[in-house]
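Morning F.,

Quick status update on the modeling queue. The single chain you submitted on Monday has been processed. Sequence for confirmation:
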Amino acid sequence: MGIKSIVEQALQDGYLTPSMEAEVGRICDTAAELSVEEYMALDKLMGSLLTGEVVAVPRKQFINVMEELVLSDAITRVAEIEQTSDTSLDVGDIAAYALNRLPPLYATTEEGANYQRQRAREELQDLIQEQVAEAIARYLDRPEFFPERQALGGKNDSDVASQLSSLLKDYAPNYEQNPIS
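Structure tokens below.
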């Protein structure tokens, strides 16, 4: 999708979504130079944003508390297994498998996140542990195929600490500030 079509869509709909904004930014960052038409479209978009004809939809900040809870449980179990064997496990694969089988617990405020954490501890802890255990069993029983596969983001860390650090930075930026008991 080009700048002109994004601007036309924004003018038609009356709003600019975060993905539309990101696409305009990507095009502007990667293009060697923009055409006169693209500059005119950007100018029209800017004017429409300033007059309120087009409204920028704000990015919603939210977290899935279930990710923190699953990561915490998975990290503990993976560390135990790796300390007592020569087996190396991928925390990301294990967490993804478990998360795909658990309900999301989204929150937009710290109070909401605390509520979701407490609710999960009371109502879902057994299910979380069950799904993480199943994920580990599946991981250990998986066939060796696609050795060329790459982790998302190009990260190819094999030790648990590096995986944990990467996952927490990406999915739970406030994890250390709000430890899960």
